[in-house]
Amino acid sequence: MPQGKLQAPRGTADVLPEEAARRRELGRICEELLGRAGYGQFESPVFEDTDLFARGVGESTDIVQKEMFTFEDKGGRSLTLRPEGTAGACRAYVQHGMHKLPQPVRLWYLGPFFRHEAPQAGRFRQFAQAGAEAIGSDDPSLDAELILLLGQLLEQAGTRKMRLRLSSLGSADTRAAYLDELRAYLRAREGELSDEVRARLDSNPLRAFDADHHGTRAVMAEAPTLLDRLEPEDADHFAEVRALLDEAGLAYELDPSLVRGLDYYTRTVFEFESDELGAQSGLGGGGRYDGLVERLGGPPTPAVGWAAGIERILLASDVRPRDEQRPVFIAFADGADARDGFRLVRSLRAAGLAAEMEQAGRSLKGQLKHGDRMGARSVVIIGGGGEGIEVKDMETGDQVRVGGAAQAVELLLAEASE
Ligand code: AMP
Questions:
Q1: Which of 12, 116, 270, 280 to mutate to test the pocket of ligand 1 (most atoms within 8 A of CB)?
Q2: N or C terminus of the chain: which is more exposed, having fewer CB within 10 Å?
Q3: Which fold has domain 17-170+230-316?
């Protein structure tokens, strides 16, 4: 037999029940918040054709160049574990002819995503994202709605030290003209740039704004910004988004260097961060991606959306599970028939109560201690020799003797509904 220690793969983690309860609570917040705003829950496959991400996320992005978990299936097709959710949502929009539905189509999702990144605190190879997309309208109120919804989600989760960065990338044409200008500017000061930025100067010069490299940062501090080059239409669109956020009282920093890691963004882009998180400070972000649906073979369709990292929200927040029902614990005195306990557990559960029974051979004293530790609301002690059933209220310590199982169920039900 091989002796190696078996562990979860690098960059992945098990979600144990306590953590799962916090995640469930976050899911509930999403469902309530997004449901109320008209977003319907949506699921797409965990793997898709590699081509979807190459086209949808962009060939020059880190995600596509370095981070995809790509494999061949038995039929020789190239598949990829989804690194993000927007491309899949747009693929589904096109595939199901959702442009024929009343627009915009509002979708939200929650599930696992995969990126082959170097793991560190807050950065994993499998992580969970919640996301929301509004596809089929360029109305600036949708940009504002989505930003506010993500802000509310983070606030309701109790996220600490949170801030919002906001910018606009303009339309594809403005961006192309601006990118030419930026490339020319960078080329003129090429000697001061990092090797990485220089290597991407043609494919993705905007990434230079993201660089940590000292020389590059100095060059970027004086670089022309896209915000100053927006066409009047895009500038008006952005002004309206800002006005709606201002009216809602959501504070933000304008950050013309904000670059999202995906190629498809146009106009509004935004990112929520928390100083609580250290280097991986991004809680969630998104923006408008008016060209993506068309790029994936659909009709020209404006859209806007975001994705937020569940693990990072949990790290930076104190979201707690809502009070869940405390169980009844069934203990056995000497000589009790375990089958009586098994029957009682079934009856209690059938009546809608949480119930467990002793199944590890503890002494009666050990059983009571266990009931206390597990947070049982009541402990039921089944006596030996048929002398009835004792029900102990763990809060008050009061003990009541009842005639049999039916009476015990009745009493516990009445207590639970108090
Ligand atoms: P993105 O899809 O890159 O815009 O990411 C949206 C959010 O997902 C980020 O702000 C993070 O909170 C989260 N996220 C992205 N990549 C990872 C990762 N490798 N590990 C954990 N969370 C991540």
A1: 280
A2: N
A3: BirA Bifunctional Protein; domain 2 (3.30.930)
